[in-house]
């Protein structure tokens, strides 16, 4: 990196800087003339110099020059004008100079803005590119939030300064010299004309600035999103290198920077358009003074001295000297920020950029052995992890690595996966150092998975397929408008030093996963999901998800058949009472009071419980049916019972998990509310207090909470109110509430609710598990399992995959590695969060699945259970950083060594 910001700016923008400096020099000519012309107007037609006699005329626009070696050359003879005509002509020339100077300022400022945004885009991309090339050990020394903040915030002023770095001193200096030579400032303000122009400015400019406020919000939002994405890259750098997806990240970042560039460039254009119009309106006043005031002076109704005073007072000096001082302060501030960025990102040694070059073509299989020669590894503190280990692993061999914690087994696997770099020694394939191999080879032909997982914010499917997104495989189809927009963005990306990789392309390498395209990808995915025992988890996620009926047509079309099949299956197995179906004419005891009253689902987020409760129609219904007082009384009973039973319990007590209407933090609030409402009368409570009490009754389920509050009379009243609610429901509510219908699919309800069309009985033990098992079998029977699985794969995993459990994250991480169908699989205790029985089952599944149908990749597995080593061709036993024993299972199990001790 360049140590000086000025050199960095000049190196990357010198041609643009020279061009804009030439424009600045050219702008000084009309700027000079705009100060000289008022003198000609006042001294000429206004005061009468040269028009002394009656009918006197002067030549206007006579253009002639004496050229050396040629002589006198006349380009235009000019026009003969009288005094009044000359006044109008010179006034119009002044107006033209005002417009021209405004256009020069508009162009210079817009060009500076574009130049600064390009430089900001360039430096941000270069910094992120360096992050992608940091050595692995460096990430243990930095905080991701600090890196993200520096890239987002601390380089921000550098973009604005880029356009001003050379232009501002030239422009401001030129203006200062010109202005000081020709302008005399007088403090005098006069005239209704000026007041009228100011009035127009006060109306027009604020309206135009609304667009600036909107663009400013967009800029803030996109910058915030960029910061979050950068933090993900830093936290997931090992996943990126291990899957050869650095170019995918480059495309994503370039796309985001392109969006920010577009917003900010639009902001600059609009900002300086507003400024141009504002300046233009301000400068129209002198034109009117010259034309109208001069005419009045000719008529003898205005004193010449007054006119000159007004014009001089209105022509204010822009203050270039003050702006030059501000520029110098900004220059120093930006240089300090740049120096901090330089110190943070000037890291050595960086990963060679050639290692991460884009490779679209398929990569050949690794057919040579993995040779480890005299390998030595240390941690960040210098403690020795692995000490002079040499071993050879053949392409088709399965190797179990065992050893106690801290034995060096985990560090050895990390070195094979390029997660840490050797202190000494080498790891080679076919004589080539593993660290010198392109990531297009190691990220595709070598898969690494450990207990440490990271997932990017997105769907479960996008994270599962992340290891297949090495390069754009299928270009998107654009219409004419989109193609032009993409061409413009690509051109801007090149000018800013960004790659032109298209994030909208299909990056998934389907053939690497054993599929021909997106249509049969799920068939390649499902065996992997079954092997790591995550299919049921994904099915559960699908059942809890809403279904996009435009995408998953088969599921929505078969939902009625699924309901019928489920009812038949439950009846055949004698489980009729396990599900209580919805019936419009009956109260469902297993559903909440609110669900019984609504008998449908709300289209969130357009409609929520709070908005529904505040709707006038809903409030009127409550008053007319008397449910307000009934549910208020019911809510008071619930509050009293809950406070009495749970007020002495700690907040983390498991009993609170049974409360759906109140949390542990709500207990003190309702305790105080009950003391205040001692009269228990509905009329004595405020609307907010009534709402807080009634809200408790909405979540009440008699079989679950068992407070004995639901009488037959109240249930019949709720059913009656339900019918009245749907019978007269207004159009605005009808669009946002979907009523349950046994003969159709309900898009706003979950898949589970759609299939059940009822509620599971709380009295039945393990009812939910039994229902899920039956549903899985029904999906298979109707050939819908893959469709339902695809719904689960659309589940948003959240930031870092935190919406998944640790067990699910480790399973998904292992599935992602398996899906690449690599030649070498390195598993570094990848399932530590699972119990030993499940770990053993998944290990056996993977070994059997990877070695079927003639495909036999090398598997290197750091085992938590030494007994599973029986499944492997060879065993490497580590102890205290060294290779203590090596051999096959029969040899080591019979030998009185460390391995036998681990088995016992």
Automatic annotation (TrEMBL):
Main localisation: membrane
Keyword list, A-Z: ATP-binding, Membrane, Nucleotide-binding, Transmembrane, Transmembrane helix
InterPro entries from the UniProt entry: ABC1_TM_dom, ABC1_TM_sf, ABC_transporter-like_ATP-bd, P-loop_NTPase, Type_1_exporter
Recorded superkingdom: Bacteria
Subcellular location: Cell membrane
One GO CC term, this protein: plasma membrane
Membrane topology, record value: Multi-pass membrane protein
Residue ranges annotated for the ABC transporter domain, each copy included: 370-902
Residue ranges crossing the lipid bilayer per the database entry: 15-33, 87-108, 176-205, 280-298
Coiled coil: none
Gene Ontology MF terms: ABC-type transporter activity; ATP binding; ATP hydrolysis activity; ATPase-coupled lipid transmembrane transporter activity
Keyword Oxidoreductase appears in the UniProt entry: no
Name the record gives this protein: ABC transporter ATP-binding protein
Lineage: Bacteria, Pseudomonadati, Pseudomonadota, Alphaproteobacteria, Hyphomicrobiales
């Amino acid at each position: 990196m360049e140590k000086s910001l000025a050199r960095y700016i000049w190196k990357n923008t010198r041609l643009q800087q020279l061009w804009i400096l030439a424009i600045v020099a050219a702008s000084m000519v009309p700027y000079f003339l705009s100060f000289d012309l008022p003198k000609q107007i006042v001294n000429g037609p206004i005061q009468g110099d040269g028009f002394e006699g009656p009918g006197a005329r002067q030549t206007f626009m006579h253009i002639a020059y004496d050229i050396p070696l040629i002589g006198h050359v006349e380009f235009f003879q000019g026009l003969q004008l009288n005094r009044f005509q000359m006044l109008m002509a010179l006034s119009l020339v002044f107006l033209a100079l005002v417009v021209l100077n405004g256009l020069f300022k508009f162009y210079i400022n817009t060009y500076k803005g574009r130049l600064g945004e390009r430089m900001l885009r360039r430096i941000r991309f270069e910094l992120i590119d360096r992050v992608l090339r940091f050595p692995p050990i460096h990430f243990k020394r930095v905080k991701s939030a600090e890196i993200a903040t520096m890239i987002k915030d601390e380089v921000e002023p550098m973009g604005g300064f880029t356009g001003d770095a050379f232009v501002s001193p030239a422009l401001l200096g030129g203006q200062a010299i010109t202005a000081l030579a020709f302008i005399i400032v007088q403090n005098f303000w006069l005239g209704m004309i000026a007041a009228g122009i100011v009035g127009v400015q006060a109306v027009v400019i604020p309206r135009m600035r609304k667009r600036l406020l909107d663009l400013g919000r967009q800029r803030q939002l996109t910058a915030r999103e960029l910061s979050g994405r950068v933090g993900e890259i830093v936290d997931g750098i090992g996943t990126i290198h291990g899957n050869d997806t650095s170019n995918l990240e480059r495309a994503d970042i370039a796309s985001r920077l392109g969006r920010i560039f577009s917003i900010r460039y639009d902001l600059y254009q609009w900002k300086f358009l507003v400024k141009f119009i504002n300046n233009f309106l301000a400068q129209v006043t002198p034109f009117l003074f010259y034309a109208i005031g001069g005419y009045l002076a000719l008529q003898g109704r205005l004193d010449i001295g007054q006119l000159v005073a007004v014009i001089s007072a209105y022509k204010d000096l822009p203050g270039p000297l003050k702006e030059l001082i501000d520029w110098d302060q900004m220059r120093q501030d930006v240089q300090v920020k740049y120096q901090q960025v330089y110190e943070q990102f000037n890291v050595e040694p960086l990963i060679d950029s050639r290692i991460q070059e884009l490779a679209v073509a398929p990569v050949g299989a690794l057919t040579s052995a993995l040779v480890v020669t005299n390998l030595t590894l240390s941690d960040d503190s210098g403690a020795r992890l692995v000490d002079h280990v040499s071993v050879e692993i053949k392409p088709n061999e399965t190797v179990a690595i065992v050893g106690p914690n801290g034995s060096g087994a985990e560090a050895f696997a990390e070195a094979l996966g390029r997660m840490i770099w050797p202190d000494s020694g080498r790891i080679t394939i076919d004589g080539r150092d593993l660290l010198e191999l392109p990531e297009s080879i190691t990220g595709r032909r070598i898969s690494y998975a450990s207990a440490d997982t990271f997932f990017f914010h997105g769907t479960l499917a996008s994270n599962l397929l992340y290891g297949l997104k090495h390069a754009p495989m299928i270009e998107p189809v654009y219409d004419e408008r989109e193609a032009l927009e993409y061409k413009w963005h690509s051109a801007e990306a090149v000018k800013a030093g960004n790659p032109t990789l298209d994030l909208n392309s299909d990056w998934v390498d389907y053939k690497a996963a054993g599929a021909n395209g997106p249509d049969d990808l799920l068939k390649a995915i499902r065996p992997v999901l079954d092997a790591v025992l995550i299919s049921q988890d994904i099915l559960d996620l699908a059942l809890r998800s809403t279904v996009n009926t435009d995408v998953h047509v088969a599921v929505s079309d078969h939902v009625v058949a699924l309901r019928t099949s489920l009812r038949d299956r439950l009846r055949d197995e004698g489980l009729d009472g396990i599900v209580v179906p919805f019936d419009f004419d009956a109260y469902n005891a297993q559903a909440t009071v609110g669900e019984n009253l609504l008998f449908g689902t709300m289209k969130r987020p357009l409609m929520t419980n709070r908005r529904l409760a505040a709707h006038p129609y809903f409030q009127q219904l409550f008053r007319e049916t008397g449910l307000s007082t009934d549910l208020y009384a019911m809510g008071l009973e619930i509050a009293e019972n809950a406070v009495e039973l749970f007020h002495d319990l700690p907040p983390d007590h498991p009993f609170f998990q049974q409360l759906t209407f109140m949390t542990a933090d709500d207990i003190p609030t309702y305790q105080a509310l009950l003391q205040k409402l001692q009269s228990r009368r509905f009329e004595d409570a405020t609307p907010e207090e009534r709402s807080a009490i009634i809200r408790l009754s909405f979540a009440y389920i008699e079989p679950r909470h068992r407070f004995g509050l639901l009488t037959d009379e109240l249930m019949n009243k709720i059913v009656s109110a339900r019918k009245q609610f749907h019978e007269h429901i207004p159009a605005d509510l009808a669009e946002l509430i979907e009523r349950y219908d046994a003969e159709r699919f309900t898009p706003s309800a979950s898949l589970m609710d759609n299939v059940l069309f009822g509620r599971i009985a709380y009295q039945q033990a393990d009812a939910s598990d039994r229902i899920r098992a039956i549903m899985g079998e029904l999906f298979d029977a109707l050939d819908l399992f893959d469709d339902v699985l695809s719904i689960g794969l659309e589940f948003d995993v959240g930031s870092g995959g935190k919406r998944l459990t640790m067990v699910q994250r480790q399973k998904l991480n292992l599935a992602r590695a398996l899906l690449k169908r690599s030649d070498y699989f390195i598993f570094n205790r990848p399932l530590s969060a699972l119990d030993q029985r499940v770990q053993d089952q998944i290990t056996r599944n993977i070994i059997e699945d990877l070695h079927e149908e003639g495909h036999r990749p090398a598997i290197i597995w750091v085992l938590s259970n030494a007994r599973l080593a029986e499944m492997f061709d060879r065993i490497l036993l580590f102890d205290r950083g060294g290779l203590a024993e090596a051999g096959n299972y029969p040899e080591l199990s019979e030998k009185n060594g460390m391995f036998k001790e681990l088995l016992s």
